[in-house]
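cron nightly-structures :: item 1 of 1
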Amino acid sequence: MKKFNFRKVLDGLTAASPVGSSGGGSGSGAGGSVHPGGTAGAAGTPREEIQETLTSDYFQICKTVRHGFPYLPTALAFDPVQKILAIGTRTGAIRILGRPGVDCYCQHESGAAVLQLQFLINEGALVSACADDALHLWNLRQKQPAILHSLKFNRERITYCHLPFQSKWLYVGTERGNTHIVNIESFILSGYVIMWNKAIELSTKTHPGPVVHLSDSPRDEGKLLIGYENGTIVFWDLRSKRADLRAYYDEAIHSVAWHHEGKQFMCSHSDGSLTLWNLKSPNRPFQTTIPHGKVQRDGKKPESCKPILKVEYKTCKNSEPFVVFSGGLSYDKPCRRPSLTIMHGKAITVLEMDHPIVDFLTLCETPYPNEFQEPYAVVVLLEKDLIVVDLTQTNFPIFENPYPIDIHESPVTCTEYFADCPPDLIPVLYSVGAKHKKQGYSNKEWPISGGAWNLGMLYKLKTSKVFEKQKVGEGKATAEIVEEDPFAVQMMYWCPESRIFCVAGVSAYVIVYRFSKHEVNTEIASLEVRLQSEVEDIITPEPETNPPFPDASSQLPSLKSLSGSTNTVCLFVCSYFVPLLLSVKARPVRMPPGYQADLVIQLVWVDGEPPQQITSLAVNSAYGLVAFGNCNGLAVVDFMQKTVLLSMGTLDLYGSSDPYQRQPRSPRKSRQFAAEDGMLSSLAPFSFLLINNCLSPFSVVSVKGSRKLSLPTDLKTDLENRENSFSRSRSSSVSSIDRDSKEAITALFFMESFARKNDSAVSSCLWVGTGLGMVIILSLNLPASDDLRHSEPVVVSPSGTVLTLKGAVLTFACLDCMGTLTHQPYEVWRDPHSADDGDKTRKRKLVMHSPSSSQDMGDHQFAVICSEKQAKVFSLPSQTCLYVHNITETSFLLRADVVTLCNSVCLACFCANGHIMTLSLPSLRPLLDMNYLPVTDMRIARTFCFTNEGQALYLSSPTEIQRLTYSQEMCDNLQDMLGDLFTPVETPEAQNRGFLKGLFGGSGQAFDREELFGEATAGKASRSLAQHIPGSGGIEGVRGAAGGVIGDLTRARIALDERGQKLGELDERTASMMASAEAFSKHAHEVMLKYKDKKWYQF
């Protein structure tokens, strides 16, 4: 048993003596680094040799970009000139989308749900109305939108808002039925108020209900249409401050839509009806229809249907108008999916949706409400999707969505982030992903095309295509299906240089993918692995009787046909075959260009116990090996030769080097249940199978209760119990260790390192970390020549080296003698299905170490190991522990990664208490410790990950990914890195209506809102009604644009553009008025000359 020097640990906290040949020294500190004194083995004095450049000034945390679908959407708005879309959510967030890649996220500090959004069309501003009865004005002319003004209503609740085109006065309807008017520029309430009791008739005894609609007449801007919930409609004259007409209907109103001429309007009601009203005869609607109601035989009114929640009435110059509405389906079909109905002439088209409809908007060619609208698309916001329907084609196809907003198509279970991919990889992924475009989409360009940016989804891969389809019971709740989804991805590993991609699934399978530009039709190879182990007090087999590492040459089966024969190699005789959970497709499978399945590895049932979920995964393309482990043991597979090299229980990996001297249990005839954890505890013969046929379909088997396929490494109980389990000292007694019946493999890492103390050169190794803080180094004996790689076996053998840490091991890394990060060996990518099969092209090109390091890697290196509790740096080959840093005593780490930043390297950690920390390497000096994100959800703990150049991400909601940076340089340059939401675009000209149409088609006098609603005429509003709150948007805008002379010139140019645009519009209007006046004068003179000399009786 290994002895610990407790005196030095407790006294000085400055030294720890490495004892014995199996491990390095153990130090302890109170959240700080421990630097052992004396010599540092072969490393000498690393503080003098390695100059660390990173300091705390290099680090700062801030959010950057958010991707995915807005979580719990509630509102929708569109700017038809800028062509950008805004989506509000129940959590107070706003997402602004433009051309593919333009995606901006902003958040209300109150977190109140967004009720409604209104763009100031082509003005670079947005108004949001929230559930806390506050209005906010957002400035979109800066890269990060910010609030300019806020107005908080104190006595009334906001129900509806309307902002006319090119107006600075916002109409606000309230729950009490009143209508207030807000100046957009100053965000001050006007004294002009339309009270509900003045809007309705004096004889009416009941309250009309909340305001559900506000809109000005397209024919006369001085007339305002007000819709009340109980079915009352008021046409209000803003000048005379009285109602021109009132209309009543016996069903509640949900929405109102104008005809562009301003003579008719359409209402949608709670009984599924649409009513069309004419201003000349407001006593009753001149047309009432229930589109989805059944016509009665006796001529009575059709049956009522579900409410039509929204209707839009859009006209076309050369065809019948479009009537688009949501809801209104018949009650006799309760299971029918949510639908959007499009009525065009006599044709009625019902588009069924996969999710409930939140809102929709019809996109039109003109922003002017008094012109032919010419609709061309409908944007439909669903609870979990965004759909755009093409109205220009008779079959109404949808546009293919270019945004990466469908990441929640199946629940996200894990994430990995790569910030420094090879430059040629991104275009390849993009081109291959573009070829997967589905059929049936509209052939037109995506209509939401505003802003300037370039970021999007590159490629999508579905692992379920490898397996046979599983039948899911109909009528099953979606959440229940997700929890039992056997295809859920649990872990991922990607090598960008070799383009090898590996996936571990919740059903205990591993899939190795290779990238190819060519389509192939081939069978998928598969392997089966058995992993089972136990611990018991009785020592039954002698170690030499059952050696933990058999000769690898005896493990190679004759690989004739993976699909036609079953090849089995066992260390012990197998009594029976156990079926798999999933069935790999046995027939040839067509694989399109991109990532193609090369090998499927599955863990099988052993003695009635289901395979345990995979807890660690590593792949190395240069070695041609994939390693994975779970709570039972470790498996190493050669994916080049399609053979299993190692299938071993965790305890057997130690051999004679186990510091706790535990022994594996021998196979026994009787099986017993483990009462503590409720799982079958048994020992299976250590064996592995090579097979391609699956004999039974998927089934969920009960094992002492019900076993559910859960998401990876269920941390729900961990967040409650792991604190206690990992707070115990690693020097606890052997009996307490023996109570842990299973020691999970938690980390794996392939690298070129010194496996033993007496090694003089680096060799291929596999570093294995366990849940008890043990690190085991396995030696990999590869064929001497790469030409023999496909024929000679790879031998995996123990090195005898065991290192110890406190807490489960999370990550490994290797630094060379100069402190530079040493990358893993890799194979340069080559297309496995290339048409040229020559020897030169088929020969592998291997890169065995980082190109930045020298050919001579020195006589020593540093191994960086981080666990849930502490980090250690060892000097190799001496295995001396140079530095120890106890990261946390009261919590535990969820993620740790060794990353590069500013041409240096550091250790980035994310703790369960929400702290993000960075440590220098190799000295483990604390550089950053910020309480950033408390782990309130398992989703965050499962998906948080770091990458190089100071970037990280996590799943902020079930549908959104939040990116952040911990680099001070990136925080400083964030404004320059973000895209532009507002781009200077000229407002389209209004159609020339002609003199006579302008004279007789509308109001005889111009409408001046400023004169009517201004303080001079309307007075001041009550101070207790609403409170004005200045925002920080102006300051942030100046700060964001403060780029010296360039920023000043940009602001000046934008101001001049706006001034020139307004002057140009004024000149055009003046010229139009002069032309109309000249035409009128000419016609009047002609009429005068014609009738000048005629008598009255000659007319």
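cron nightly-structures :: done
The chain is about 15% helix and 35% strand.
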